[in-house]
Specification:
Two copies of one chain form a homodimer. Helix content of chain A is 72%, strand content 0%. Chain A has 197 residues and is mostly helical. In chain A, helix 4 runs antiparallel to helix 5, helix 5 runs antiparallel to helix 10 and helix 7 crosses helix 8.
Chain lengths: 197, 197
């Protein structure tokens, strides 16, 4: 059986995704775990701490998703797998993306974590695009173009769900496929073999 | 001197932009106008009504910005002017874009207006891209590609500010220039003369 800390995080994630972060209190979380609020506070002092820990999980998922394959050549397939993986993560932790602006506004520590990760992450994306170029998958491009492609990928990667949800109707996992298609649409014109189209 | 209704809308826009919609009440608005709350209520029953009226202004600005020039050929310059105009509007009404998810969640009537406008607007964008193609400015593209380009333009057009703000630091008008550059980055690979780069 998972340890208590892990169980608290798992149940919090489910409740946040189902009801939205603002509508879930630590009491709701304790209740769903048949745990006393005191026991929960022993592990996490407040909801913000739980959210930060879940964001740490997201960062680990991203690091894993975007790690370059060891001893294997980069292919268009690699890019496709990364794009699909990115939106799998966005779906799994969807509360975070839906409530992004609110969460960052409410917790300066989380905002700092998010911003540090985004800065490093965007630099990594530029480096990854350079690997695509070096592998002959992508047309050479100047720094400004690579920066703009990176910003578009991150904008879609962080806010596709918000845009989709603003359009109305129930969100579902299949909505993530359109996010993957938008990643491809951003990259397609820059790839040498136009297989991404 | 502007009529009372117009003055209420102008002052509301300024306060919403400065403080965020959530931190402004109708009492604050009345106070800033040296007006009794009763007088304000005579014109607008609540804050939601003011926000909806401001959104109606945004829709008018958009319609004006994206109207095709009469008796004039479409040029790359037209596209540049439209892109710049789009982010002028986003900056002038920035409260709306920053608080988009919150505002739509709080007012079903506003959500309906926004969604109706977005649906029509996205169809108009596809039609505009087809005009670009017909004018020899853009490479022919299938419907799926045009839809994806349109979604990217709308995602950046609606959420660039949110993405920018999540990155930290004070927002300023110059941040809008990067939005314009992202519009160009989305369109550039599809244009026949690569002047947009």
């Amino acid at each position: 059986m998972a340890d208590t800390r892990t169980r608290i995080l798992d149940v919090s994630l489910t409740l946040f995704n189902e009801r939205g972060t603002a509508n879930v209190t630590t009491n709701h979380i304790a209740e769903a775990l048949c745990m006393s609020p005191g026991n929960l506070y022993y592990h996490f002092r407040n909801k913000a701490e739980i959210v930060r820990e879940l964001f740490a999980r997201i960062m680990l998922c991203w690091a894993d998703n975007y790690a370059l394959p060891q001893d294997k050549a980069l292919t268009l397939k690699t890019i496709d797998v990364m794009a699909a993986g990115n939106f799998e993560i966005q779906w799994r932790y969807r509360f975070f993306f839906r409530d992004l602006a609110l969460l960052l506004g409410a917790d300066p520590k989380l905002a700092e974590l998010y911003r540090g990760n985004r800065e490093t992450g965007m630099a990594n994306t530029v480096a990854l695009l350079r690997d695509f170029i070096a592998s002959g998958l992508m047309h050479p491009a100047d720094r400004k173009t690579l920066d703009e492609i990176t910003q578009l990928l991150w904008l879609v990667g962080d806010l596709w769900l918000v845009f989709r949800e603003a359009g109305g109707g129930e969100l579902c996992k299949a909505d993530m496929d359109q996010g993957v298609r938008l990643f491809r649409r951003i990259l397609a014109p820059h790839m040498i073999k136009d297989k991404l189209k």
